[in-house]
Structure formats: structure tokens, C-alpha cells
Amino acid sequence: MKHNFKNLNIWKLAIELVNDTYILTDAFPKNEEFGLKSQLRRCSVSVASNIAEGSSRSSNKDFNRFLEISLGSLYELQTQ
């Protein structure tokens, strides 16, 4: 079953996380441009991207797999 990701609250929250991450990391020092700053941004974008990509899958099993990948990106973000 395909989902319209733009209607999913979890995707909307992930987009807020991306925006918050970009705002927070703007204050990082210049020497973190290609280090922690970049990694945090990529993690947050990955969360929303995997939700969107998973929503295109034809089965809930596939969709759930992408949600698990998103969760992994959230754990990575939390760790960093």
C-alpha cells in the first residue's frame, strides 16, 4: 500500500528536524564545516528522505523497512 508521504505526520516532524538541525549547526565553528556539521545535516536529511522513499513502496513490509532505516539515522544523529 503506497502512502502519500506529505500527509504523514512522521514525515512532517522529520522535516522540522531537518530545519532545526540546519539552524543549530549554522552556529558551529568553521572547522566543523566538513566534519560534525555535515554529518548531522546528512543524518537529519536521511530520516525524511527514507520516509519519503519508503512511502513509494507497494507493500507495508517494504515501507516498514525504510522506517527502520530512518530510525537508524535518528540514532546516529542522537549519538553525534
Please supply descriptive tags for the structure shown above.
80 residues, mainly alpha, de novo design (two linked rop proteins), 3 helices
Task: Please describe what this structure looks like.
- It is a single chain.
- This protein has helices spanning 9-25, 36-55, 60-79.
- It has 80 residues and is an all-alpha fold.
- The longest helix has 20 residues, at 36-55.
- It is elongated and about 45 Å long.
- It starts with 8 loop residues before the first helix and ends with a helix.
Number of helical elements: 3
Highest-level CATH class: Mainly Alpha
Q: What share of the residues lie within helices?
A: over 70%
Mean pLDDT: 94
- What is the terminal separation in angstroms? 34 Å
The name of the CATH architecture is: Up-down Bundle
> What name is given to the CATH topology?
de novo design (two linked rop proteins)
What fraction strand? under 5%
Q: What is the rounded Rg?
A: 14 Å
Return the structural class. Answer: mainly alpha
The H/E string reads HHH
Given as residue ranges, the uncertain stretches (5+ residues, pLDDT < 50) are none
Number of strands: 0
Number of domains: 1
- CATH superfamily (homologous) name: 23S rRNA-intervening sequence
Biggest β-sheet strands, sense, barrel: none
